[in-house]
Amino acid sequence: MARLRSESFHRRNNPRQTVAYARVSSHDQQDDLERQKQVLELYCARQGWTFEVVADLGSGMNYHKTGLKRLINDMVADRIGRLVITHQDRLLRFGAEPVFAIGEAKPVEVVILNHGEDTTFEEDLAQDILEIITVFSARLYGSRSRKNHKLLDGVTHAVEERSS
Fold it and tell me: Are residues 107 and 39 in the same domain?
């Protein structure tokens, strides 16, 4: 488990809350969202922390999720002293570094429960490309165009072949 700036959390006199943040990309991952929330609740309770769970449903590339925006606003306003997440990519798939920089400047202790297994650069790149394709496929499928469906299937197939 990683703890960033934990000594800073105890220096402040004003009460700042612990926020546990959970996110999944789609409605069919609702069970995973519930599991994340349970893990976060159990961990925070075992630490003896008073906490709030904030849950979002949406892509890790979507910076406009309600819970994420509230989390960032509360960090900037010094209302959060600790952020707990199950994995770093649950916060954002890309661009989590500025959020962590805000946390470091405020300071906010960041606790990441699972760092996961070490992956190679190629595995990370393949996962990132699949995430990008997923986001854009949702937009293309929303247009209901047969031509776009066929194009997207071809691109997805080509990327999957490359990553295996």
Answer: yes
